[in-house]
Amino acid sequence: MSSDFEGYEQDFAVLTAEITGKIARVPRLPPDEKKQMVANVEKQLEEAKELLEQMDLEVREIPPQSRGMYSNRMRSYKQEMGKLETDFKRSRIAYSDEVRNELLGDDGNSSENQRAHLLDNTERLERSSRRLEAGYQIAVETEQIGQEMLENLSHDREKIQRARERLRETDANLGKSSRILTGMLRR
């Protein structure tokens, strides 16, 4: 059983070395070769995963007394596989950025279009800013008018309260006068 595991280990080591070399070459290849290399690396990564699964099955069949050493090896192989997949994703991202730049191109015409688009957007922003400023001024003026109206209403309220107080005093004085006159009439 351990001989099968060791055979799988050797195959895994050779395969991961090939994958590492190919991943390093991907960013430097011409576009048509990159596409082919990416597909090739994906295929080899699948093969490496299958080898790991076979190795894992072999480890499960090993007696528990000697399984610990093989389990440690498996953990390191799985970590190595994870690192390879991460490196491959990074190289694919770099590859996809290059493809995107090629597709978009950077000729003078697109630059002029972008410039015109930016100028249009700038003008729209300036118009919107002016409208917002005008709206803000109207809001400030409305607030000032409202403040003045509240002050006027407050003064009017005070006048009404003073007039009401005078009416009460006049009513009280009239009541006193009426009693005094009634008292004088009785004498």
**Extended strand count:** 0
| End-to-end distance | 141 Å
**Rg estimate, integer Å:** 46 Å
Query: Count the helices. How many?
Result: 4
Strand coverage percent:
under 5%
What is the makeup of the main sheet? none
| Morphology call | elongated
Overall average residue pLDDT:
85
- Give start-end ranges of low-pLDDT stretches: none
Percent of residues in helices comes to over 70%
Return the string of H and E elements.
HHHH
Describe this entry's structure for a reader:
With 187 residues, this protein is mainly α. It has helices spanning 2-25, 31-61, 64-104, 108-186. α1 packs antiparallel against α2 (31-61) and α2 (31-61) runs antiparallel to α3 (64-104). The longest helix is centred in the C-terminal third of the chain and has 79 residues, at 108-186. The chain starts with a helix and ends with a helix.
Based on the model shown, name its key terms.
single chain, 187 residues, mainly alpha, 94% helix
Quick rundown:
With 187 residues, the chain is mainly α. The protein contains four helices and no strands.
Topology of helices and strands:
Elements: H1 2-25, H2 31-61, H3 64-104, H4 108-186
Helix pairs in contact: 1-2, 1-3, 2-3
